[in-house]
Amino acid sequence: MIGEERRATRRRRAQRQTLVPERPDRRTEDRSEVREAVKRFLLIGLATLLFVSIPVALWILFHAERHALDNARTSTQRLADFAVGPLVTDELFAGDAEAIEGIDRRLDAWLNRGPVLRIKVWDENGRIVYSDVDQLIGEQFALPGWANELLDGGEGQATIEPQEDIENEFEENAGELVEVYVLSTAATGEPLIFEAYYDDDDVRAEQSAVLWETLPAVLVALVVLQIAQLVPAVALAKRIQHHEETRRTLMQRSIEASDLERRRIARDLHDEVIQDLAGLSYAMEAEQMRATPEQRPLFTQAHSILQDNVRTLRAMTRELYPTNLEQLGLPAALNRLADPLREAGIQVTVSGTDVGTLPRDTSAMFYRVAREALVNILKHARADTVELTLDSDDENTVLVIRDDGRGFDLEAGPPDGHLGLQLMKDTIKDAGGSLEVVSRPGQGTVIEARMATPERAT
After folding, report:
1. Per residue, what are the HEC states of the chain?
2. Integer Cα distance of 368 and 290 in angstroms
3. Cβ distance 388 to 399 under 8 Å?
4. Apex 185 CA angle, 183 and 187, nearest 5
5. Which of left, alpha, beta for 403 (phi over 0: left; psi -120 to 50: alpha)?
6. How far is CA 402 from CA 275, 336, 414, 429, in A?
7. Which of 138, 302, 308, 321 has the greatest number of C-beta atoms within 10 Å?
8. Average pLDDT per run of 10 along the chain, which is 458 residues long?
9. Domain at 27-258: CATH code
10. What CA–CA distance (Å, rounded) separates 334 from 390?
11. In angstroms, rounded to a whole number, what is the distance separating the alpha carbons of residues 74 and 66?
């Protein structure tokens, strides 16, 4: 008979083991998380690369433009000092045609076969003493403010801009031009302002050349830096993931050890202490029957105290190790947990219980959360209705407990300084889940416990 019971027990254990789903492959999850971390790192690196490259490109273009303009100013200064200045004589100031033709011949190589589009030579009073456009010779315009600084020996200037001033009648339709002003000296010793216009294509070409010569080196350096950072980043991600897996493993073993210790204590209480006290209760009841009338009240009181202690110990064993959780399953166990609230006149509904078969530690976690919450509701909430909803999908299993009681201020903490839910919150967090409490005075309380749903056994 005993052998048959042992074999039946073994069969039940084997059936429970086959119903427990296998856990997901943590190594696969770890590799996936590392890949996601690397992807995020690369995306951030790409965004940083673009963020850095655009200002660098603009900086290169700006300095390439300044360099090209400096070259144009230098070339113009040489043209003014060595080609034009020596030919500006009194005859030119007087508008002599032969003097003008002499400068035309000298500048032919620059104007007709070179980069120069227009040349104007001004005296210090703003009169154009020479231009390749005959109509401008002898015209007088007001000099800009910077002309005085240039005439006093200041540095020449070069800009790229559309020509829209009054003296630019013949250049205003040419778009952006490189405009250069330099100080020169006539053969007679008088100061001259030499003005030359160039097509901006040369400047833009130099900008592009400098950009494409410089930017690839900058980009390569940034990419090499990114790759150099990627290697330690991947190693760091793997190391963090390994530590996280170790922490989860330790937490899981801690929960399993706690569960095993609860079983041992519950078994010892049930098989030894409770049995001994139950036997003592029967013996005391028998002695009570044989006691004298004077002794019977004492035996009655002692028997009552002993029975209360036995009931208390049995309740403790159920809390330490809820056997109905394995026998009935989590949904039915939650429904049974609500019985004390129903006896107190509170309407309790348990719904959405199609969650399949969960591992014992996950079920035990939800069971303890529900027990803690329902005890708090019974003691403190003054609720009329309570709803327990247990639901599951491919990613998470969620237990929601909602009551219409008096609620409490989350910042002030739970009533009477009760820390049970906070301890459960820390435990579930360490196990990889979460527990959220939402409550306001007079508006009830909502508790949501969430754990990852393990893969279903096939």
Report:
1. CHHHHHHHHHHHHHHHHHHCCCCCCHHHHHHHHHHHHHHHHHHHHHHHHHHHHHHHHHHHHHHHHHHHHHHHHHHHHHHHHHHHHHHCCHHHHCCCHHHHHHHHHHHHHHHCCCCEEEEEEECCCCEEEEECCHHHCCCECCCCCHHHHHHCCCCCEEEEEECCCCCCCCCCCCCEEEEEEEEEECCCCCEEEEEEEEECHHHHHHHHHHHHHHHHHHHHHHHHHHHHHHHHHHHHHHHHHHHHHHHHHHHHHHHHHHHHHHHHHHHHHHHHHHHHHHHHHHHHHHHHHHCCCCCHHHHHHHHHHHHHHHHHHHHHHHHHCCHHHHHHCHHHHHHHHCHHHHHCCCEEEEECCCCCCCCHHHHHHHHHHHHHHHHHHHHHHCCCEEEEEEEECCCEEEEEEEECCCCCCCCCCCHHHCCHHHHHHHHHHHCCCEEEEEECCCCCEEEEEEEECCCCCC
2. 46
3. yes
4. 160
5. beta
6. 39, 17, 16, 21
7. 321
8. 45 42 50 73 79 82 83 89 89 89 88 85 90 88 83 86 74 80 91 89 78 80 78 77 75 69 74 77 77 80 81 70 69 84 90 71 82 86 91 84 88 62 74 85 90 62
9. 3.30.450.20
10. 9
11. 12
Instruction: Work out the end-to-end distance of the chain between its first and last CA atoms, rounded to an integer number of angstroms.
Output: 35
Q: How many residues does the chain have?
A: 458
pLDDT at 10: 47
- The CATH number of 322-452, from 3.40.50.150, 3.30.565.10, 3.40.50.300, 3.90.1170.50, is 3.30.565.10
**Among 133, 125, 198, CA closest to 160:** 198
Instruction: Please report, for residues 186, 415, 441, the alpha-carbon distance to residue 445 in angstroms, rounded to integers and kept in the order given.
Output: 95, 12, 9
Classify strands 445-452 and 128-131 as parallel, antiparallel or unpaired. Answer: unpaired
Check: CB of residue 334 under 8 Å from CB of residue 390: yes
Which of left, alpha, beta for 179 (phi over 0: left; psi -120 to 50: alpha)? beta
Q: Which two tokens stand for residue 90?
A: 């009194």
Question: For the chain, which residues make up each domain, given as ranges?
Answer: 27-258, 322-452
Kind of pairing, strands 385-392 and 347-351?
A: parallel
Q: How far apart are CA 46 and CA 42, in angstroms?
A: 6
